[in-house]
Amino acid sequence: MEEARAFLKEGVLRHLSMLEEESVLLATRQKEALQQQTRVEELRSKLEKLRAQRDQLRAKVKTTVSLQQLTSVVDQENVEPQEESREESLQLFQLKARLTQVKDLLRAHHLIGGYDVVETRRGKGVCFSLATAFEGRYLETYNLEVDLARTIRICRHNVPPFIPLEKLAQQNLQEDIKAFLVTLSQHLNAFAGRQEQVRLVKELLQGSVLVMETNSLYSIVVLMCTVPGQKETEVLLTLEYGDPTQYLPTRVTFESEDKTLLESPQWKESQSLLQQTPVHTALLAWKKERRIC
């Protein structure tokens, strides 16, 4: 009889222990779900703010275009506004004041990241557009759609495969999406800058500098140029970009049959210049100074 009671007691305790474990597990899952929901709500709130800022900027840009058109008309006429055009003068004054506001807003838009954000799939996702530029010229725009339904994840994008998107997402996407976008934008802009420099070398220095080799990320660029003299000497330049978020090389090496040329102070100075200046700018300066043919 005692054995039966002990067995029954042990079974009840085991059952209570199982219930307690299930209760703890359920509470943990509920907490995680609540945290995830909170994170989604925060992201949606940020999305609404960014969209409102975008719409405001677009309205201000339209105002700026109107100002430019009106200013152009006044300049063409080259006359002071007459008494009968006081209303136009007031409009011009207001537009000039708004132009100052637009510049301030564009500066603020750049500081918060400058990304265009569009809601997708009825609020279950968002699509970020990341524009790249180099020396004031807009280049490629990349799009990245993020799913907010459950865990935050990237569902579609056109980011080049050699950009470490998955690694960057693992580092920041769940915890700080703005930091993730900033880092990704740095990688994309640096890649676009390196690629654009090679394009400019081909375009501006055709016949003087030959692009011998590049890889897909443009982290290694090999160029061939010719140094004038009694006997023309070919020099091979290898640019290595060790930092994928920068468009300037971290290492520059020269190769030539004329070893004395490479040891000259002028070429050592040139090596330093290439690490501080875009390659097409440095090479154009060399050509102007007749360092290369």
TrEMBL record:
Residues 33-67 form a coiled coil. Signal peptide: none annotated. InterPro entries: CENP-O. It is found in: Chromosome, Centromere; Nucleus. Its main location: nucleus. One of its GO terms (cellular component) is Mis6-Sim4 complex. It comes from the Eukaryota. Keywords: Centromere, Chromosome, Coiled coil, Nucleus. Belongs to the CENP-O/MCM21 family. This is Centromere protein O.
